[in-house]
Amino acid sequence: METSEVRKAIIPVAGFGTRLLPVTKSVPKELLPVVDVPAIQVIVEECVESGIEEIVFITGRGKEAIEDHFDYDYELEKLLEERGKDRELEKIREISSMIRTIAVRQKKPLGLGHAVSCARDVIGDEPFMVLLPDDIITADPHCTAQMIDVYEKYGQGVVSLMEVPQSAVSDYGIVTGESWAPDLTRVRTLVEKPEPDIAPSNMGIIGRYLLPPIVFEYLEEATPGENGEIQLTDALSKLARERALVGYEFHGMRHDIGDKLGFLTANIAHALRRHDLGPELRKYMETKLEGDLEQ
Questions:
Q1: How far is the first Cα of the chain from the last one, in angstroms, to the nearest whole number?
Q2: Which of 16, 94, 194, 261 could staple 199 via S-S, CB 3.0–4.6 A?
Q3: Distance (Å, whole) CA 215 – CA 116
C-alpha cells in the first residue's frame, strides 16, 4: 500500500462529559485544565508537534468556546500589551497561531463512527488521525508521532492498544490477532465493549487511530445499532478483514480525563514534569503522605 503524508486530524468534542458532572454542566470538559492548559490544547499540541497541519473539531451545541480558544482575541491581546504583560501576550498569540482548525457540527449524538464521518468532506482522500480528547497520553515522542512512524513503515491503518484489566474490558473496543513485530499486532477481530466473561482478550483500543480514507466508505455502509449509533469499530472490523489493521502498543502513560481519578492523575503527572512546579509539588506530596501515614 502506497502511503501519503498524514497532515489532518479529527478531534470529536461533541460529548456532554457526564462522568464529570456537575462541572461540565456549564464548562465543556475539553476546556478543563491540565494544570494551567486546557485539556484540548494538550491534544492539539500533540498533533502540532507530530507534524499535523489541520485539525477538524466535530462539535455540538455549547462547544463554541473550544473554537474561541484557538481564535484571536484582540481585546485580550490589546489589554495585555497595554499592561506590559509580554510573556502572557506571547502565550496567547502562540495559541491562536498554533494550527489551522475547522469546526464541523454533529447535529445528533449518533456515535463515534458518525462523528468521524462528519469530517469526510474536509479530510478528502487522505489518511487521517482521530484523537479522543478524554485520553491524555504522556509520551516522548508523542503517541501520534509513534503511530505515524508505524504507518509510514507498513502503510496500513493503525490503532493504539493497551492492556486493560479484565474487569474493565466492557469500557473498550477489544481486539484479537497475531503478533506481527515487537509491540505490533495484526488485528483480526474487534469487539465493542464486551462483557468480561466473553471478552476475547484484554487488549483495548485507546483513543488514537490513524486511518485510511476508505474508512469513510465503510462508515457509510455501516448498519446503525439499536440506539441509532454508528460505531467506528464496525468500520475498523471491515478494514481488518478486507485490507489490514495494525494494533500498536504505544510507549507512554495514558490518563482518562473523562474520569475523575484520571483527571486528577493527569494533572499530577503533568505538574511533576514541569520545572516550575515539579520540585515543590514532589516535596509537598512526600511531606503530605508522611503526615497522613503518621495519623
A1: 63
A2: 194
A3: 9
Q: Which residue has the cell 469499530?
A: 233
Residue 30 near residue 38, CB atoms below 8 Å: yes
Quick: pLDDT tens for 88-143.
888 888 888 888 899 999 988 889 999 999 999 999 999 999 999 999 999 999 99
> Amino acid identity of 1?
M
- Give the whole-angstrom CA distance, residue 51 versus residue 141: 12
Cell of 118: 462528519
Strand partners, 205: 161
- Find all residues with CB under 8 Å of 65, minimum gap 6, and list them: 28, 31
Question: Which amino acid is present at 134?
Answer: D
Read off the C-alpha cell for 98.
498554533
Q: At which residue does the C-alpha cell 478528502 appear? A: 124
Cell of 190: 474487534
Q: How far is CA 31 from the centre of its chain?
A: 14
What integer pLDDT is reported at residue 74 of this predicted model? 86
Cα 39 from Cα 30, distance rounded (Å): 5
CATH of region 8-294, choose from 3.40.800.10, 3.40.50.920, 3.30.1330.10, 3.90.550.10: 3.90.550.10
pTM for the full model? 0.91
Q: What is the 3-state secondary structure (H, E, C) of 74-133?
A: HHHHHHHHHCCCHHHHHHHHHHHCCCEEEEEECCCCCCHHHHHHCCHHHHCCCCEEEECC
Nearest CA-CA partner of 187 in 204, 172, 165, 170: 204
Integer Rg of the chain from CA: 20
H-helix or E-strand spanning residue 153? helix 143-154
